Amino acid sequence: MKPIIGITSFDEQVQGYHSINNNYVNAVFAAGGIPVSIPTISNEEDYEAYIHMVDGLIFSGGIDISPLRYGENPLKEIKRISTIRDEYEFGLFDRAYKKKLPILGICRGLQLMNIYLGGSLYQDISRQLPNSLGHCPDFITIEEEYHSINIRKGTRFHRIFDEDKIYVNSYHHQGINRLGENLKVAAVADDGLVEAVEAADDRFLIGVQFHPEALLKRKPKFLKLFEDLVMAAKDNR
User: Fold this and answer.
1) Among 117, 132, 133, 202, which is most exposed with the fewest C-beta within 10 angstroms?
2) d(C-alpha 96, C-alpha 92), whole Å
């Protein structure tokens, strides 16, 4: 049986449905896994049921995480949060991390793993990171490569891509400030902003600040990241 990969979704309460971008689903299928959308969880027993159901997890992108999670009050640039989603995803991540399930965090997902492990964020890159480059363009689609990132040798991330520099999309106004525990930097942008992290131990735990699920439509090499997740999920059974 193919590995089952859970993907976190978001409860759009106004519209009355759970949403997830189909790019995540397509990426998991293409990598040889079986994607399963995980709705908002509030019951402790339901967390455990999903953790036992899946072989690996993708924490998807989305709105900002409440800065209260890392001990800060919000700046005026924080426009949209959901403490309901925060509670659900932190609870799920807590159980998955303790079980050492393979985890891939994408955009918000990277930020979530960093905060869970004691790190913090730049609430707004353009305001808080001097001389930062553009990271959140207004009129460029998410399928477009936007800037380069420099991959550090000796990392799992470097082994996956086998390149020192790649070009990625960019769709975020926040990023890692203080790095969380048991994480190491795997890639940075030219302005020094962290673009990828991974576990400092031997578990599969990778977070990226860009959106590889959207890039692989035109750049097949980004499928490698999902293939590595699926393989780690298979090995972890």
Assistant:
1) 202
2) 6
> pTM of the entire structure?
0.96
Which H or E element spans position 214? helix 212-215
Give tens-digit pLDDT for 65-110: 999 999 999 999 999 999 999 999 999 999 999 999 999 999 999 9
The pair of three-digit structure tokens given for residue 39, joined into one six-digit string: 């709705």
Instruction: Kindly list the catalytic residues.
Output: 107, 211, 213
pLDDT digits (tens, 9 = 90+) for 216-234: 989 999 999 999 999 999 9
Cα–Cα–Cα angle for 29, 47, 120, rounded to 5 degrees:
85
199 token code pair: 């576990």
Q: Work out the number of other CB atoms within 10 angstroms of the CB of residue 210.
A: 29
Cβ neighbour number for residue 205 with a 10 Å cutoff:
24
CA distance 56 to 237: 9
DSSP 68: G
Fold classification of 4-235 (topology level):
Rossmann fold (3.40.50)
